[in-house]
Amino acid sequence: MAVLVTRPDERGKQLVDLLNQSGIVALHLPLFTFESGGDLEAFPKKLTQLNCGDYVFLVSQSAVDFSVKTLKETGFYWREDLQYFTVGQRTAQYFSCQSEQVVRYPISQENSEALLALPQMQRLDGKQILILRGNSGREYFAEQAKQRGAIVDILECYRREPILYNKEEQTSICKRAGVDTLVVTSLEILQALIEFVPENEQNWLKGCRLVTVSPRIAEAAQQQGWQSVTLSPKADNPSLLNTLLSSMT
């Protein structure tokens, strides 16, 4: 087995290192980088305007990185009278270390549905929710929160910028390395990967086994033509590594 990891930034590199240490050939091909979002300048003011007990939801570690950096640079602090939420345990732990705040997250699954099932999300009349995310993302949580009476504000903390490659050359490198397994951790990456690989290599691409982190991505991949899709129970690197290792036994 040879694995192509498309997860961006250091987390993608770390997964490649973990796979290499386990004796698995792995290549890193991030399809975009993260840059500062267009709404970051307004973030400190929006944070101060929230009422005591309001909610702040950080969708990813990238949202944590850019929001933490902005507060440090402007001399603001994470308010102790707000409630903070993430979807996943790893992001919660990461944010808690950065902010020294209590962070709530769903235990059962790492998705918007599980987040909405938390006790704190059941009665939202008049509650303000500030969502810190990238320049695109799933709207389900925001829509459901509004239906439950919340006042939702979405702030773009970061944006995805495509990385320019020679597509034919990179695809050839993957094939020569024997890549037969793909790690895809978001719908945006899935779509970018489909667009990245030349049309005459789409059969190779969709003939690879795809390892992903949510039923939504798995379903989208199957609709695009993938026959072999494996779901990791969580999105963190140790879970992905265990999923990949278990497929070898």
Automatic annotation (TrEMBL):
Q: Which UniProt keywords apply?
A: Lyase, Porphyrin biosynthesis
The Tetrapyrrole biosynthesis uroporphyrinogen III synthase domain is annotated at 14-241
State the source organism's domain of life.
Answer: Bacteria
The pathway to which it is assigned is: Porphyrin-containing compound metabolism; protoporphyrin-IX biosynthesis; coproporphyrinogen-III from 5-aminolevulinate: step 3/4
Q: Which organism is it from?
A: Rodentibacter rarus
The Enzyme Commission number assigned here is: 4.2.1.75
Instruction: Give the GO biological process terms.
Output: protoporphyrinogen IX biosynthetic process; uroporphyrinogen III biosynthetic process
Q: What is this protein called?
A: Uroporphyrinogen-III synthase
